[in-house]
Structure formats: C-alpha cells, structure tokens
Amino acid sequence: MNDGMANVYPVLLAGGTGTRLWPVSRELYPKQLVNFTGNRSLVQATARRLVPPLAAEKIRLVCGREHVHEIARHMEEIGIPAEGKILTEPCGRNTAPAILLALLNILNQSADPIMCVFPADHVIRDIETFHARLKVAVGLADQGFIVTFGIQPDYPETGYGYIQGAAPLGDGARVIERFVEKPDRKTAQKYLQAGNFFWNSGMFTFRAAVMLEEFRLLQPALLARMQQMGTAADPSEAQYRQLPDISIDYAIMEATRKGAVLASDFGWSDIGSWKSLYDFLPKDPDENVLDGDIIAKDTRHCFVLGHERLIATNHLKNVVVVETPDSIFVSDLGRSRDVKSIVSRLKERGRVEYHHHRTVHHPWGSANLLEHSGDIEIKRLVVFPDRQFDCPTSPDAWQQLTVISGQARMMVKGQDQPLLCGQSCVLQDEESAVFVNPDSEPLWLMHIIISGQSALDCKARK
Description:
By secondary structure, the protein is an alpha+beta fold.
C-alpha cells in the first residue's frame, strides 16, 4: 500500500431509505443493500472498490440500527470482517451528524488520520481513474483542504446540486466558490458551458483534525452534544434525536474557507432514481434496459425490471415498470422520481409495502411471507448455520412448524429433541419453542400461523 494512504480511513454512509427506488428499495431494506448493477449489493461494491488502495481493516460504516445485521452480513460475504467497523445511528439525522459520529470514533483510535467519506449507494464505472483521483484528494487533504469530488458534467442535469470552482490548485482541483441548489434546465446549461461548475457527488476527503476544528468553529452546539455522548459506536436514541437534522454541505462546506473541489470524471452516478439507474446501465438496440422474464414488443427507451413473474409489454416508450412479489410500479421514465410521494402516501395509509418486502431479514436468517389470507399466515423461514429462531408465542394462535430442508434441534417445554426433515411440531396458546440449526447448511422451515376463530377450531378438533 502507498505510504500516503496508510493512515486513511474510508467511511461509508449507509443510512437512508432510497424511497425513489421503491418498490425494490424499502425502509427496512434500502437501496444500499440491493444488487442493481452486478453480483454485489451497492454497499459491497462501494467497499470493494476502495480495497486497495485503502486498507479493509480501516473501513468504517455508519448505518441505522435496524440495518446493522444485514450490513454486517454483506461485509462478511465479501471477506471484510464487520466486527468493530459499524457505527450505529439510532435515528437518521442527515450527513453532518453521521460524519461527526465517525470522525470522533476514528480520532479516538488513531492520531491525525485522513478520512474519506463515501455514500454507500453510489456507482463508479472507471475504478482506475477513481483510484488516481482518490490519491490526489488525499494529497490535498494532507495540505489542510477539505476536498469534495466534483463530477465533470456532460449534460445539463437538473437533479443534482452543483459546486462552482474558483482559483486552480493544480491536478484539476479548485478552491470552492459556492454551492448551488438544483438548477432549472436553462441554468444548468449555462453551468455546463462555463466549465467550472461540477456535480456535487457527496464524497469528501479531509484530515480528521481539520474537520473537527471546522465543526468547533461552525457547529459548536452539534459538536458539544455529540461529544457528550462519548465515542460509543451505538449512542442512545434519546440523545441522538436532539441533534440537528443537517447535511454536511449546510453545516460545514458552504461556510468553510478550506473547501476544495476536485474535478473528476470516472463514470459516477448516485443511482438516485429509476431514471438515473436506467442512464447508468447498458441498453439493448431499442434503448431498453430489460432485466427478468421479459417479453417486449414495440417497446423503446424503457426500463423493465422483473423478479418473480413474466412481464409482457406492448407499444411502450419512455416507461419504467418494476415488479416485486407484492408491488408493481409503472411510471413515465422521466418522472420516476415522483415515486417518493407514493411512498409517503403508503406510509400515511399504514401500508406495510412502504416499510418491508415479503421477505424480511433477521440476524438469525429470513422470513418470507408466502400467503396471508384471513386468519391464516404461511411463512418460509431460513435459519443460518449455528443460529436459532425463537418462535414468538401467542395466547390465541395455533402454530405448526415443519422442517423442509436440513434438521433442527427443537427446545420446547424444557426438552431438547431433534426435528428431522419432514417432521413437524404444533404449538398452542402461549407454548414457546426455540429452533436451533446445528448444521453447516441453512435450515428451512415452513411456519403456519392460524389465529382468531380458525385457531379455536383447530384446537377443538385436536
């Protein structure tokens, strides 16, 4: 490893819900956990493209409490041990508190480190060029600059914020003149022609001590509150909710005199909507992105994504169709960002589809809802090796669990007994059971829950 990169800590911001990519991205399973562009999830791809030139053991991830176990599993899958690397936010408070949480934690472990902050849900095509710009950014940070990667615009995008660069610093870097909100198309066209405006990527590099001093100068109340929590990787929710909901741009970057923008062109996208994902992915001769069991007739410039069912399209243009087991989203491709308002409506109406998929991931494995009709609920459970599923009790339910693959150790009424493939057990009233997977392969269970009057009928028949 390059000596100049030896004390660099990459920080991946893995919070957020990615509502503009609903119905695939959901509150309990956000877009950073989804595989959109290859064989890895976005958070896995972000981590892997950093190693090398950066050290895997120095990676830190900031995420919500409800995503810790799944983030850890994704890291372990790519050979990056998660222990000691995950910092937890009990609730979302935007990027300034998230970065400060990581900064204080890292300063407690290392003297004068450099930090590189990356959203965990972005994509980059040209990894070699990215690494080269990363080394330039680290060099600038070592000189005391707070560096943001400014993406060289190639069209007048209105969905991104822009950064105006001023005096050159060498290697394509400039002093930051100002940050600009998302412009209209006419203004964006002017920025493109000017040549010194860049898309705001939300990626930063800085010496931790320099950023800490800027927080002390520009956000003293936020810093004081965070320091009161100590350097715990999992602060209390009551304390964390008192922090301001503020981005690093508003909190620091728009006011600091140490900001530098590094012009970069390495095939970056924030995958912020179905349209931006469509733009990033390769197209067929009809300018379509088709993924899944798709039959497309007279279809052009469309994005069709299927998961479990056949999708047939006819005479469509500029449309996105996304199918998941419980929801289908259809929209004009250019207006697909508006799905965020649909998610808000689902939340207001108490619909679970805004929150989670039919498959819900847990530290012990996953539960896939196969059927829910009236009083009957059927789930397929997968229990990881050396993990256990604690079956919840219910005073008014009748439950049956059947092993469909593998074998379990079942502990019920103080007794430990094997449950082999094809065997079942029945739980009634407040009877509880624990199912342990002692094997090296996943344990599959079919879980039937009958409640209400139907449960009473089952008990009566018995």
